[in-house]
């Protein structure tokens, strides 16, 4: 969850972790209970990642990148789509036929989002933002992920300042629920 380096390196490492979890899901037979375990783990990682991006990355994109408002708005819309899918997925067991449809949709949505960020957004941000600012953003993103929610909250605010104020409280409740239920951990 916290890797070190500038914001781009941090977020790209998150992307690789998500892709690894997707690969584990794809490598299991439909209905396997471990598919749900990995889906919960990927949801936890994606929600923390998205909350951190919305709190710090996208405001920096708006400030530093030409056309940054439109870019940030599109990225936030991608997050909203993925979050709605994750909310529906949360209600499914691995044996539910809907699980396979939803996990496929999530993988497609997230892979497209990652390709866009890594191919377009990150190079633009790297070119427009001083290295020290990218390092500072990396630190802020790492801190945000530590207190961010771990469950999808599609109705929660996705722009500062409201998201920065509400995310830690939702994160605390989510982590408590996860600890009590064992969510994301092998039984």
List the helices and strands and how they pair.
Layout (H helix, E strand, L loop, with lengths): L6 H20 L6 H32 L3 H23 L6 H32 L2 H17 L14 H20 L6
Helix pairs in contact: 1-2, 1-4, 1-5, 2-3, 2-4, 2-5, 3-4
Describe the structure.
There is one protein chain. This protein is an all-alpha fold. 77% of the residues lie in helices and 0% in strands. It has 6 helices and no strands. α1 (7-26) packs antiparallel against α2 (33-64), α2 (33-64) runs antiparallel to α3 (68-90) and α2 (33-64) runs parallel beside α4. The protein starts with 6 loop residues before the first helix and ends in a 6-residue tail after the last helix. The mean pLDDT is 92.
Our Rg estimate from Cα atoms comes to: 16 Å
Name the overall outline. Answer: globular
**Regarding quaternary structure, how should these chains be classified?**
single chain
Query: What number is the mean pLDDT?
Result: 92
From the structure above, extract its key features.
single chain; 187 residues; mainly alpha; 6 helices; globular
Summarize the structure.
The chain is mostly helical. It has 6 helices and no strands. The model has no long low-confidence stretch (mean pLDDT 92).
């Amino acid at each position: 969850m916290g890797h070190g380096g500038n914001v781009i390196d941090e977020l790209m490492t998150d992307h690789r972790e998500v892709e690894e979890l997707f690969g584990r899901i794809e490598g299991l037979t439909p209905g396997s209970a471990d598919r749900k375990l990995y889906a919960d783990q990927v949801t936890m990682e994606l929600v923390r990642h998205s909350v951190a991006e919305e709190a710090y990355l996208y405001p920096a994109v708006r400030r530093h990148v030409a056309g940054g408002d439109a870019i940030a708005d599109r990225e936030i819309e991608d997050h909203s789509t993925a979050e709605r899918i994750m909310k529906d997925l949360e209600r499914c067991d691995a044996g539910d036929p809907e699980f396979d449809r939803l996990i496929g949709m999530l993988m497609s949505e997230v892979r497209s989002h990652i390709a866009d960020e890594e191919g377009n957004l990150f190079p633009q941000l790297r070119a427009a933002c001083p290295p020290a600012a990218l390092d500072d953003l990396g630190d802020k993103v790492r801190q945000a992920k530590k207190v961010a929610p771990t469950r999808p909250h599609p109705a929660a605010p996705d722009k500062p300042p409201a998201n920065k104020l509400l995310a830690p409280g939702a994160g605390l409740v989510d982590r408590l629920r996860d600890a009590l239920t064992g969510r994301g951990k092998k039984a």
